[in-house]
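Renewal narrative, Specific Aim 1. Our central claim is that a sequence can be written position by position from structural information alone. The example that follows is taken directly from our test logs and has not been curated for this report. It begins with the structure tokens describing the chain, in the order in which they were read.
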């Protein structure tokens, strides 16, 4: 086992994680909203401090301030961010809070959308996820792995109930002045597997039900895949300079129209076009900010 893997390097924290953890590991329509656990957040902040190099930064904080101002005016806001590792959300919160008062203000109003896997697969992964307020969903791609027809039928029903509760919760938390953060790829990008960087079609619904959004690119990664990407506790810690960059504030209606023009008249799946355009814009931001990062 790699000495820098999460399970080895931070094994000494596991008893405390277990003691502090309070989240339910089976998701139902009753517990899709999970409020941040401050005790575990302190542990995650310690891990960020150890792995995110001091010259890391969050760029274009002014856009975050404008974004939050629009939310306070009653606009529904969404943050769409690249996804490379399970440190992306911790890194986002860590850097945003330390970018100045404007960034810290937005960080206090971020609610992340999270797949059930983080809660249900491993109790320690679930404990780490507890550090941040989130709405848990049943990802549609999880259903594609179920071969048994009867089991599939049961899980389809479960997914409908859970996701309906999640959408109701999303509406409520945004009315309370919060921004929702979503990873449009729905999974971490695996090098050599371009399909993991394709946006999930359902993201168009989040954009359609929003008024304003910001895109966030990520350059640098301090938590790398091991030989077994499915083993989240096997991920390897590698301190790195992380640069996260916010786009200007984007009008969601205008963005969806721009996406259709970008794709042209021949595009058949209008929803997928919007998400493909999100990923295209994120990739352009990523490439621009990679120049001179190291």
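The sequence written for that structure reads:
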């Amino acid at each position: 086992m790699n000495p820098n893997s999460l399970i080895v390097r931070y094994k000494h924290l596991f008893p405390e994680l277990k003691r502090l953890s309070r989240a339910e590991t089976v998701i139902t329509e009753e517990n899709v909203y999970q409020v941040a656990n401050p005790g575990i957040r302190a542990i995650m902040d310690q891990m960020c401090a150890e792995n995110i190099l001091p010259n890391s930064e969050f760029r274009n904080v002014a856009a975050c301030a404008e974004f939050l101002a629009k939310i306070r005016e009653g606009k529904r806001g969404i943050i769409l961010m690249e996804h490379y590792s399970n440190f992306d959300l911790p890194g986002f919160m860590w850097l945003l809070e330390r970018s100045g008062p404007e960034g810290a203000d937005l960080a206090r109003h971020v609610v992340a959308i999270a797949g059930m896997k983080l809660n249900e697969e491993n109790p320690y992964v679930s404990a780490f996820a507890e550090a941040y307020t989130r709405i848990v969903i049943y990802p549609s791609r999880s259903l594609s792995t179920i071969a048994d027809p009867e089991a599939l039928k049961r899980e389809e029903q479960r997914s409908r109930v859970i996701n309906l509760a999640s959408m109701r919760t999303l509406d409520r938390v945004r009315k309370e002045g919060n921004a929702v953060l979503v990873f449009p790829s729905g999974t971490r990008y695996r090098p050599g597997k371009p399909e993991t960087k394709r946006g999930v079609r359902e993201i168009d619904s989040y954009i359609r039900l929003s008024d304003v959004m910001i895109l966030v690119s990520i350059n640098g990664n301090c938590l790398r895949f091991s030989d077994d990407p499915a083993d989240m506790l096997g991920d390897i810690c590698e301190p790195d300079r992380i640069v996260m960059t916010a786009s200007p504030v984007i009008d969601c209606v205008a963005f969806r129209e721009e996406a259709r023009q970008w794709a042209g008249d021949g595009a058949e799946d209008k929803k997928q076009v919007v998400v493909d355009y999100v990923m295209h814009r994120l990739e352009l931001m990523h490439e621009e900010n990679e120049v001179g990062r190291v």
